[in-house]
């Protein structure tokens, strides 16, 4: 059974960089043919896809967040990391890591395993 677990600070100050890590067990982020993604849900809004890092290490980001987003991985630890720079209160959300076999997934039903989510608040 694949398990994903998000970790990172719950409070980030405006203009700083948000950094979250997803630890994966029961599967390999570098050999299993999947796309390891970050998704968020702002308060009172729907899910928003942020980007992914594929099993080859290739990354792809949401155009609306691309200029501020970086996703990397540590294959020795089977972890992948989100960095979102220059955050504002609008980046306050529950952040999820999730897995999909489809690099062009168009709906969130195509993600088969999810972390439980972690609340990140941007506030001074």
Can you give a write-up of this model?
This protein is mainly β and 124 residues long. Helix content is 0%, strand content 48%. The chain contains no helices and eleven strands. It has strands at residues 3-7, 11-12, 18-25, 35-41, 48-54, 59-61, 69-74, 79-84, 93-100, 113-114, 118-122. The strands form two sheets. Strands 2, 4, 5, 6, 9, 10 and 11 form a seven-stranded mixed β-sheet that branches. A hairpin with a 4-residue loop joins strand 7 and strand 8. It is globular. The model has no long low-confidence stretch (mean pLDDT 96).
| Structural class by helix and strand composition | mainly beta
How much is the average pLDDT? 96
- The percentage of residues in β strands lies in over 45%
The separation of the N and C termini measures 39 Å
Shape: globular
The percent of residues in helical segments reads: under 10%
Low-confidence stretches: none
**Could you tell me the number of beta strands?**
11
Task: Round the Cα radius of gyration to an integer and report it.
Answer: 13 Å
Q: How would a textbook summarize the main sheet?
A: 7 strands, mixed
Short description:
With 124 residues, the chain is an all-beta fold.
What descriptors fit this protein?
124 residues; mainly beta; seven-stranded mixed beta sheet; four-stranded antiparallel beta sheet; globular
How is this fold's topology laid out?
Layout: E1 3-7, E2 11-12, E3 18-25, E4 35-41, E5 48-54, E6 59-61, E7 69-74, E8 79-84, E9 93-100, E10 113-114, E11 118-122
